[in-house]
Amino acid sequence: MPWRMEQALNVLPPSKHRHTDVKTTLARRGLALTRGATSIPWRGSHQALPPSKSKTFAKLFENSQRMFGDPDTKLACMYDRMVLAGRGTPVDKELLKAPTCCRYHWLQYQAGKRRLIGAVLPYEDPFLPPTPASKALQNLRKPDQLSRRVWHDLNTNARVQATIATVNVRWHSLRHDPGYDEASLYDALRPHGHIDSIHRTSQLSARVTFSELQAACRAVAAHSLGRPENPLLCLWYHKSMKNKGFYVRRRHLHVSLDPFAT
User: Which Pfam families does the entry mention (predicted)?
Assistant: First the structure.
């Protein structure tokens, strides 16, 4: 039989070899626990406790002893919980006893004790409250209120000055597709009508102004624009030109198509 398996079979249950000091303290105070009823005073009365409450009292007393006991006792309880939970081995319990056979086993004992000593000892360093995050650092990358106001006014003026036959054109960013430029956009949208201007607003979008409203309507209503591998999405630049209305009825969102005059 392997030595590790033999050690695992020789481990006694925790209830038979642990917490003898607790039983001694209870016996000295006249609170010796039994399997049946006990004479522990409960809430000012001397009635007998049921077995379930006596076990609860014993468990709470053991937890208090673990909390205020010495580090070795805490380590022993932690090793027992590790073994019972399946995260440790019975060999770990042997690390609690300082070996004197050789330096290797002594260093192994010190390493195992140092691994858990920080988890059971109280925090001795002075408590330093976390410094509050500065709002100036949080708003460092955000534009100030004046810049946001200027950009809002510029976009509003551009939207007001644009004609009603202005549309937004967008496309996808593909790995093997270069996208669209002014010339390719002109070639893709020219069959729908005469184009006055094309303005690139970003790497994947542009603003196109048609000469006639009918041409812009045909471009928006077209099912396929541009290349088949990277089609164009054409939407109205002015929100009032969108022919879709949304309303809620019986907690459901409905879409209504409202034709507009051309």
Answer: DUF4523
Give the CA distances from residue 80 to residues 2, 24, 88, 119, in Å, rounded to whole numbers and listed in that order: 22, 21, 8, 15
In this predicted model, what pLDDT tens digit does every residue of 24-56 receive, in sequence order?
655 655 555 444 444 444 444 445 666 667 777
- CATH assignment of the domain containing 185: 3.30.70.330
Q: Are residues 86 and 169 in the same domain?
A: no
Helix crossing, 51-68 with 20-28: angle to 10°? 110
User: Is the whole model's pTM more than 0.85, yes or no?
Assistant: no
Domain around 224 = 165-241
The single-letter code of the amino acid at 262 is T
Residue 40 shares a structural domain with residue 107: yes
For residue 76, the model assigns a pLDDT of: 65
Residue 125 has pLDDT above 90, yes or no: no
Structure tokens at 146: 């004046």
What is the distance, to the nearest Å, from the Cα of residue 18 to the centroid of all Cα atoms in its chain? 41
Round the average pLDDT of the chain to a whole number and report it.
71
